[in-house]
Amino acid sequence: MLRKQITEKYSVSEQITLDDVNTLADAGVTLIICNRPDQEEEGQLAFADVAALAKTKHIDAIHIPFSGGKMTDEHVNQFAQAIENADNAHAFCRTGNRSSLIWQAVQDAKAAKQEPATHYDVVIVGAGTAGISTAASLLKRQASLNICLVDPADNHFYQPGWTLVGGGVFNIASTRRTMANVIPKGTTWIKESVSTFAPEKNTLSLEGGKQLSYDHLVVAAGIKLNWDSVEGLKETLGKNGVTSNYLYDLAPYTWELVQKLDKGKAVFTQPPMPIKCAGAPQKAMYLSCDHWFKKDKLNNLDVSFYNAGAVLFGVKDYVASLEEYIKKYQVNTNFGHNLVKVDGPNKKAYFATTDQDGEATVVETEFDMLHVCPAQTAPDFIRNSPLVDSTGWVDIDKETLQHTTFKNVWSLGDVTNSPNAKTMAAVRKQAPVAAHNIVEAMKGRTVNAVYDGYGSCPLTVERGKIVLAEFGFGGKLLPTFPKWLNDGTKPTYLAWVLKEDLLPPFYWRGMLKGHEWFVKPQLRK
């Protein structure tokens, strides 16, 4: 069964089997809807058999069958009633297409009944770093703009700080503000989720049914941490020695584990790209090892790094310095190993890899501490929208940040298909470019600000020293400081001061306020 997630509460697939009913039950599905007539093809599983097994799993099952091209208003009404209060619904037909179409028909029917869309000059989807920075930069250029930020979150986080929380440097509370505290003055905040986009109509629909229309749309929806990509991981996160600095609630647990571990095996993992802050899995490892090294515990520990990729870091200029720390901390590196399963109670991790003959295999390792970085994708409501490319990321011109099809749609941050590193530093450069180009487009002028792919990864190799990796498209080095002041390919104390002392206030009081220090947009001549 290839399950396609339409929203967090609704998914579709081709014809399911009885084994698939068990899978859906394990995934928390509470309602199964069949959109196929029985006996549509030879050997087809009868709906009654699906319903009988579903009942034993405490799953409701409803039959709303119709042939392809013969969906009626009655079918749509029945379907709308069925899913209205469902916590987690899954529908199927022969290919999944009818189940997708009837869901969309319900959304269209809701939109037709509601009040006219509320209009804004600019609608920004996502009030993370990218969304708020862009809103603030727009207002710096044109304070009269009517801007709406759409985001259901209660809190806003300084996520780069979580690495230092996991290393015992920062207090976790310092990385959080209430969303109301950081929304730029003069903008409207709608605390809801987006359900669907209709870019050909310049509108989008919210989960609550309301519609918004816009002159320009900015998609800054961030990235989804796909914890479900690893079997057994969600069930053991935060216990059994399994942690991740990618979660606000778990970064303190990382530091707790590091302090308590005196002997045994510590395992750190990195999934296939793309992920946000590609250096973060290593940062957790280096800071942990530095603590064990200084506490004279490292000789009693077996530290391993399992990386789904083929290299330690994607830009070769920084690898030599990192390899020195790999040697210093006696880390066993394993490339081409992707975490696929975690058995928390028995403290075992399983990695998919290939053997010496090139055959796919799964290897097992024990652990006392396991730091996990999950696979990552664009959020479901983005991946199922008309805004994405074939890989599920928002399709933009990597330099102008303008959508390749819809010219009044812009995107930045982790959700795009731009080949830059997905980091906060990238957004720092992208937000002024997006804001400049949007204002130019509003004035009917050719967009001329370009983004050079800048990203930064402060690799915390030890407490007090950082390898400040700064690079653009194609791995081109783009250092902020002259080499005599800070050689970014080497570990330096200055880079540590930047990370620990300067960047947090720079973020809260600078970026989120629209101050574009050191990132004035580069203009095409």
Automatic annotation (TrEMBL):
Return the protein name. Answer: TIGR01244 family phosphatase
Cofactors that this protein relies on? FAD
Q: Does the keyword Transit peptide apply?
A: yes
Any GO BP: sulfide oxidation, using sulfide:quinone oxidoreductase
Q: Is this entry keyworded Flavoprotein? A: yes
The record's annotation in SUPFAM superfamilies points to: FAD/NAD(P)-binding domain, Rhodanese/Cell cycle control phosphatase
Q: Where is the Beta-lactamase hydrolase-like protein phosphatase-like domain?
A: 5-107
The molecular function terms in GO held by this entry are: FAD binding; hydrolase activity; quinone binding; sulfide:quinone oxidoreductase activity
Q: Which Pfam families match?
A: BLH_phosphatase, Pyr_redox_2
Q: Which UniProt keywords apply?
A: FAD, Flavoprotein, Oxidoreductase, Quinone, Transit peptide
Which InterPro entries does this entry report, sorted A to Z? Answer: BLH_phosphatase-like, FAD/NAD-bd_sf, FAD/NAD-binding_dom, Prot-tyrosine_phosphatase-like, Rhodanese-like_dom_sf, Sulphide_quinone_reductase
Give every FAD/NAD(P)-binding domain span: 120-240
